[in-house]
Amino acid sequence: MGRNYKIGVIKGDGIGPEIVDEAVKVLDALSANMGFNLEYKEMLLGGAAIDETGVPLPQETIQGAKQCDAVLFGAIGGPKWDNLERHLRPESGLLGIRKEMGTFANLRPAIVYDELVNASTLKPNVVKGVDIMVVRELTGGIYFGQPRELLEDRAYNTMIYTKEEVIRIAKVAFEIAMKRDKRICSVDKANVLEVSQLWRETVEEVAKDYPEVELTHMYVDNAAMQLIREPKQFDVILTGNIFGDILSDAASMLSGSIGLLPSASTGLGVGIYEPIHGSAPDIAGQGIANPLATISSASMMLRYALGENEAADKIDEAIKKSLAKGYRTGDLSAYDAVEICSCSEIGDIIANYVCR
Ligand code: IPM
Ligand code: MG
Q1: Rounded Cα–Cα distance for residues 339 and 333 (Å)
Q2: What's the rounded Cα separation, in Å, for the pair 27 and 312?
Q3: pTM above the 0.70 mark?
Q4: H-type helices in 1-89, by residue range?
Q5: Looking at the chain, which terminus has fewer C-beta neighbours within 10 angstroms, N or C?
Q6: 3-class DSSP state for residue 65?
Q7: What is the pLDDT of residues 233-266, one digit of tens each?
């Protein structure tokens, strides 16, 4: 009896293994206390997969992931694999698994914790209360467009969106907006790009089914500026793959550290839950990485993939509590820190709090 879930675990490279271990520690503490059971299946992706199997995305990982209820993922990449051909690089593994799993909707919340308003490089009054959801299209656009080629003296990529792709991601954004402040800003470059023109017209069409939601449009250059100027004007930001990649990194700094922000990649089947940051090879293995983005991704996994909302709430509360108490990893050490903690100490603290 009880609720049993199968979780695919992809630790990846760099700090990936350290941060995922802490998220699993927290999940184990929760499941022991809340009457559900998690069965983990470890899988290879990225550099770790290249070293082991010669390819960044082994067939076994694709098959294994599809049989899980959700996949928890750390980070991939590092200098060791930088000189490989593009299709053999760790990044190709990540893009490949997103495509294989049909995770076209990437949800990237940018939340500023009250406890960390001083940690942002922006003034506290600008960032206090920021709560943005970036909805990034993840399996289309210039990342995947064909044709693409690197020639001797010329190289090209293609930015393509079909109407169908825009409709499905726009629907996700509108559904999310309905549960929030009912405001969407769709970000494009419609003054220059045909693909953005189609994007804009299509989002307008989808909007007709959601009369309660206020829809505005913004060019991506202006959006980058507005995110820094007055971030509180945004509720949901809906955008394509590459614009979303760039804007979500920018938005992460509102919160003070990219080490805080989680993401959920959802869509046609099994979702992938991962921090938005990279594998940070420069600090890998030192035990100083911030595991909160991954622990927070585990919370999104519990909520969106498993429907274990109470457990997710416990993680979110525990993170806030640990920040309020002044427990900080190195990236946040300059801000109201009471105690500088290692990666695993933060994991211990959160695991302890979620059991109370
Ligand atoms: C991200 C990352 C990836 C992306 C890279 C590692 C391929 O930057 O998840 O934002 O560009 O999507
Ligand atoms: Mg990125």
Answers
A1: 8
A2: 10
A3: yes
A4: 16-34, 47-53, 59-66
A5: N
A6: helix
A7: 999 999 999 999 999 999 988 998 899 999 999 9
